[in-house]
Write a structure and sequence with these properties.
260 residues, alpha+beta, OB fold (Dihydrolipoamide Acetyltransferase, E2P), eight-stranded mixed sheet, five-stranded mixed β-barrel, 15 strands
């Protein structure tokens, strides 16, 4: 092999290693701002020195207890993990999402430590957060879901038991709230002017708004006959809400639902 060929080979190997490392760490080439952390609220929420709150996007950590509610398993560990990462250097870099703020006024961002490591990805990789996606904020989504899959296989932390496994829709009750992993059969499919509704029990329904159909291109909900969805077993993740005494969950991206 010539020297030129050897140099080219070395270049492509090095380039491949950079790509693999970037994927494994969910990195980015540029940042929007540099900031200083003042306080850690929980595993996925920080308060900056300018008093603004940052919600780590693309992930969800177990909930800390509030008032009389107990903390979910691994919620304290997630917060402690973040504290350990920021113990020596509280300076962070933020990469904002397409939607810069949520309805609570929190900044939505991918958070990077001073050494360039993605804090969001580190939480998922260590089994202290699940991957989520809320359109139009899609950056690094695939990377976070791949890291979660790896953490699940290795049964790291929150994936080591059954607490965060998919629970049957039949066992939901009216008091259930918050982020859930749910599985079950679609017993009825309904339509309205702006949504389709996948009913899984008499008291629990999944909603997919028509404005989000563009994210379901591989499924093509526009052409899919509704009777084909009925009786399918689906798995979903997201926030459970109560509306007029019934429970529902809105799904906005195909990565949040399996089985369609």
């Amino acid at each position: 092999m010539t020297k030129k060929a050897l140099r080219l080979s070395a270049f492509f190997i090095a380039s491949s290693l950079v790509v693999v490392t970037a994927w494994a760490d969910c990195r980015t080439r540029n940042y929007d701002v540099t900031a200083q952390v003042k306080r850690i609220v929980d595993g996925d929420t920080l308060v900056l020195t300018d008093k603004s709150k940052v919600r780590l996007i693309g992930i969800n950590t177990p909930e800390l207890g509030h008032y009389q509610n107990l903390s979910e398993p691994f919620a304290l560990q997630a917060r402690q993990f973040v504290a350990q990462q920021l113990e020596k250097n509280k300076k962070i870099k933020l990469k904002f999402a397409a939607d810069k703020k949520d309805r609570y006024g929190r900044l939505l961002a991918h958070v990077f430590l001073s050494n360039g490591k993605n804090l969001n990805a580190m939480l998922v990789k260590n089994g202290l957060a699940s991957a989520i996606v809320v359109p139009p904020n899609l950056k690094l989504t695939d990377c976070y879901f791949k890291l979660e899959q790896q953490a699940r296989k290795k049964k790291k932390n929150m994936w080591s038991g059954d607490v965060f496994s998919y629970q049957n829709a039949d066992i939901l009750n009216k008091t259930d709230r918050g982020f859930k992993f749910i599985k079950g059969k679609v017993i009825r499919v309904g339509q309205s002017r702006d949504s389709i509704w996948l009913q899984m029990t008499k008291k629990f329904t999944v909603r997919i708004k028509r404005k989000d159909f563009k994210y379901f291109k591989n499924i093509n909900l526009q052409k899919l006959r509704l009777k084909k969805i009925k009786n399918r077993i689906i798995k979903i993740r997201g926030w459970v809400y109560n509306w007029k005494g019934d429970l529902y969950m809105q799904v906005r991206h195909p990565l949040m639902i399996n089985g369609l």
